[in-house]
Design goal:
By secondary structure, the protein is an alpha+beta fold. The protein has helices at about 1-30, 30-35, 35-40, 45-80, 100-125, 270-285, 295-300, 330-335, 340-350, 380-390, 405-415, 430-435, and strands at about 135, 140, 140-150, 150-160, 165-175, 175-180, 185-190, 195-200, 205-210, 220-225, 235-240, 245-250, 260-270, 310, 315-320. The longest helix has about 35 residues, at about 45-80.
């Protein structure tokens, strides 16, 4: 009898102690758990990030309260109501408690209803259309993001018109340029399978759905407002121009190159800096491109999704899904019988499925002149890119000394498209880079090829 009383007294003391610890844990949920968020989460870079984190804070507190309450009660029950020594009898039979049943049904229902209303409110705030989106010089522009295995491509339909009255379109490849205070609206499309555009620092994510219209994928939209950044926040990465950079990743498994499908959001400090550092600079590049087709091609090829799949040491590309482009100029003239190096390269880009390097699948988008969106590649752009690729080798099989005629002739022979190899400039402007000695490091041999015959190169 004394033993039972002692045990009961001991159990009661433990129960009180554990109850106190449970209460402390519950109260700590309101302070301690939210304090972990800056350690776990990326920095907040948008208004949507702040809304989302406030919601997550509420979920974290409620989850902590439930966890410590349940675990505290469990420990108390195990200690206070454990079986006495040498007691082999059954415990008392309890046939239910209607009041208790009602309480633990109503309280969770109320909590879930509260969270549903709060979550819907945050979702509405984050997705509702905003006024004055993508404003530049008092007018909106259209910003598009296209996903294709395995890279993002961003384009901007500007307010500047070319001589034919069409808007200049900027293409920044994997980089998205925004500025503090901008209400960003992205129109998203996929060229192949399902992708998901995720910017963790902005707390926004949107699926890109395959299908129409016009073979460019079903359009979806993503909105966020860029907010002022804390320069003292050590989680923020700044580039050499003092612009904040945040990663863009694909959050939907899309193939073996999924983990490499990344991009970058570059945040300019305000609209004036955005125009001066990015917008005007990119428009000037279109209006006043270099006369050298090789230099034009070196810039143009980086605006397409090529780096997601290909290895090209000259540009720092490390893709492995597609054939390597290192030394492509050495192999291009030997790849398909009856085709010159120039004809092989223009065919491989504008009609990528015409020839497949052994060991590789036909995953490369078609870049013919009639392709929509990010895949649009004019004859002049094709000419420039081929001129650049013809310099990637130590013993090029291209006619680099006459590339202003050889490449346009190849495009005309294969596709029947007339291209001005001089870009309307003085034909005496020769390609300095094309005729110069190739850089040994930039044309380094491929270190790993899936197959000696199938070694890397341009067909994609």
């Amino acid at each position: 009898m004394d033993n039972k009383n002692n045990r009961s007294s001991f159990g009661g003391s433990i129960g009180i102690m554990m109850g106190v610890l449970a209460v402390v844990g519950i109260l700590g949920s309101f302070v301690w758990l939210p304090s972990l968020m800056p350690v776990i989460f990326p920095p907040q870079a948008s208004a949507e990030a702040k809304n989302t984190d406030e919601l997550f804070k509420v979920l974290l507190i409620l989850g902590g309260v439930v966890f410590f309450l349940i675990q505290g009660l469990l420990v108390i029950s195990v200690i206070a109501f454990r079986k006495p020594a040498n007691d082999n009898t059954d415990g008392p039979a309890n046939h239910g408690n209607m009041t208790l049943e009602i309480v633990w049904t109503i309280i969770p229902a109320m909590v879930v209803t509260f969270l549903a209303i709060l979550s819907f409110n945050v979702w509405t705030q984050n997705t509702d259309p905003k006024a004055d989106v993508n404003m530049i010089d008092g007018d909106p522009i259209t910003i598009n993001a296209v996903g294709a295995r395995y890279a993002w491509t961003h384009t901007y339909e500007t307010n500047e018109l070319d001589p034919d009255g069409n808007p200049y379109v900027l293409n920044t490849g994997t980089d998205l340029h925004v500025y503090v205070g901008q209400n960003v609206l992205l129109t998203l499309q996929t060229q192949d399978v399902l992708h998901s555009y995720w910017v963790p620092a902005m707390r926004v994510k949107q699926d890109l759905l395959p299908g129409d219209p016009n073979n460019g994928g079903r359009p979806t939209e993503l909105r966020f407002t860029v907010t002022e950044l804390d320069e003292a926040d050590e989680r923020i990465v700044w580039n050499e121009n003092d612009q904040a950079v945040f990663p863009i990743v694909c959050a939907e498994l899309c193939g073996d190159g999924h983990s490499r499908m990344r991009g970058t959001v570059i945040v300019h400090k305000d609209l004036d800096a955005y125009v001066e550092e990015f917008y005007d600079v990119e428009i000037d590049k279109i209006k006043n491109p270099p006369p050298d087709p090789v230099l034009r091609g070196e810039t143009a090829i980086q605006t397409y999704a090529c780096q997601g799949c290909h290895l090209l040491s000259d540009l720092g590309w490390t893709g492995i899904t597609g054939p390597s482009l290192d030394g492509i100029a050495d192999r291009a003239g030997k790849r398909v019988g009856g085709q010159s190096a120039e004809e092989y390269l223009v065919t491989s880009i504008w009609n990528s499925g015409a020839y497949l390097v052994p060991g590789y699948q036909n995953l490369m988008p078609v870049f013919g002149a009639d392709q929509p969106g990010a895949n649009l590649m004019t004859g002049e752009q094709l000419y420039s890119i081929v001129a650049y690729l013809c310099t990637q080798g130590e013993a090029s099989t291209c006619d680099n000394e006459n590339n202003m005629t050889a490449i346009p002739d190849a495009i005309n022979n294969v596709f029947g498209v007339e291209v001005d190899g001089t870009f309307g400039l003085d034909a005496s402007a020769t390609s300095a880079k094309a005729t110069a000695e190739p850089d040994a490091e930039a044309t380094a041999e491929v270190t790993a090829e899936p197959d000696a015959e199938a070694t890397a190169e341009a067909g994609d």
